[in-house]
Design a protein that fits this description.
Layout: H1 7-11, H2 32-40, H3 60-70, H4 94-102, H5 122-132, H6 154-162, H7 182-194, H8 206-214, E1 230-233, E2 240-246, E3 249-254, E4 258-263, H9 264-272, E5 288-290, E6 293-298, E7 301-305, H10 338-346, H11 360-372, H12 383-390, H13 412-425, H14 441-444, H15 448-458, H16 468-471, H17 478-484, E8 489-492, E9 501-505, E10 511-519, E11 522-529, E12 533-540, E13 544-546, E14 549-557
Antiparallel strand pairs: 1-2, 2-3, 3-4, 5-6, 6-7, 8-14, 9-10, 9-14, 10-11, 11-12, 13-14
Amino acid sequence: MAAGLGTAGAMAMPETAWARSFRDVPSSQPFAKEIQWMADRGISRGWSDGTFRPYEPTRRAEMAAFLYRLAGEPAFTPPSRSPFRDVTPTTTFYKEITWCRHEGIFRGWDDGTFRPMLPIQRDQAVVVLYRLSGSPSVGGFAAYKDVPPGYVFRQEIGWARNVGYMTGWDNNTYRPMKSILRDAIAALFYRYVNGGVFGRGVRVAGAIAEQYWASGGIWGPLGKPKANHKKVISGASRVQGWMQEFNGGTITYSSRTGARVVRGGIRGEWASAGGVTGKLGFPRSAIYGYGAGWRQDYEGGYRTYYSGWNPPEHLHGPVLAPKSVRGGVTIRRGWNGTRVRIIQRKLGISRSGSAQTYDYATEKAVKAFQRRNRLKADGVVGPATWQKLAREYPFTMDAWQTKVRVARSATRNQRIEEMIRFAQSCKGSPYTWGGAGWSNHSVAGYDCSGLVLQALYSAGLDPQPINVVRHAEPTYRTSQMLYSDKRLATFKLSERKRGDLIFWGDRGGTVRHVAIYLGGGRIIEANVSSTYGANTHERPYAGQLSATRFVRPLIKRPFI
């Protein structure tokens, strides 16, 4: 191929006197600018009736003429004898056709024909530009779903996509056998000279290109590349790789981690740690769902991101739903909770406060009930005994968890207000030792930490491994576990704010009680009080709630 016929040579082509407007190309035509550019450059001159005919197919003879003009109409003496048996020296565009043949751009068919009037296909259109460019090496490319691995022009089509000349459709098809129309040729040539859809000199290549197009390309969340890929070295592993920035994210590649996309809020978290060259290094995974947000793993750790409330990684983050737990635990002596309350009420046992536990007297009454109903009289309440005693309530009600009632993107303040709203909706519900409520508040009731657990769930926080089933275990103290939970932010009591958890303990330091601080010197709690009753209620904050309950020096802030 003669020198000066690549993109730089085409860009240097002088302006011609062919500028005009076509009467069949309104300004609303998708490629009106490119069609006018073709006319201004003298590449496509239209018809004598003032039309361009944008929706007619481009014929092979016309394409040869376009290519010759695009190359600057170089000096060339056509051969006296045609190299094609269906083209003669009198054929329109004979000089242009034979020039293309001489340069190796158009090669014709094995039977010696050129087929000048045959519409050129979309695959052939990029092949001739590829050859005009000097048949550059293609360092990896992303395939279309209708361009299989064995397709004859697969490399050329991949090249055109990577440099932004022909990018196909947003459903990842190229439609290679489809005739290319005249308006599309104008767009193709315009991009060839002016830098493609990505911008002058910008392209994608290799594994980064494959990942880019697999992620939706220019139609996907990444958008267009901002610059070409560059070499980078991981700050975590010292491995060398590549990265390329796009309007909507970054793609990285190393032989160890493969090609990965970093975008959205995760991208900001990663960038704040120095990106590839920082302590995290290359991403090792794709971005995946994590609670109510997203997470990505890196060589040097991981990063999470939530679109609304975005707490530090070492603390509990928001969830779309609390982790489900298996209910229906067999009830025996020492057990507490909502089902114990129902058993005692069904058997006529009146208890309040911590006496609502499954004790010897309760066991004795259960055995008597079992004997009356011809059940095994072991004092253990399993599904069979429950079915006889309290069939209107599910045996698995101990696993009840209220739904998350905030959006994934809820802010910190929205979550605080939902936590408080839920707790206030439970006001008046009976106090139940070890209780974590049920859908009907008046039936099951809460204790202090059971109320807090369900209020946290409603606001989209799940303090695992603390859960509603463990809450009712004989020796499990949820308030103590919340106070000890390092994944809940800790502050001094004097720094308390609305939505914080305040704790009280006995003189030995064991945490015995927890309440939600409402601000303004008030709390909401589930408790037994001579003043406010044995229920869920609001009351003024006090450092000493009873003769045995003293406020602890630290508070927990679930939503920081």
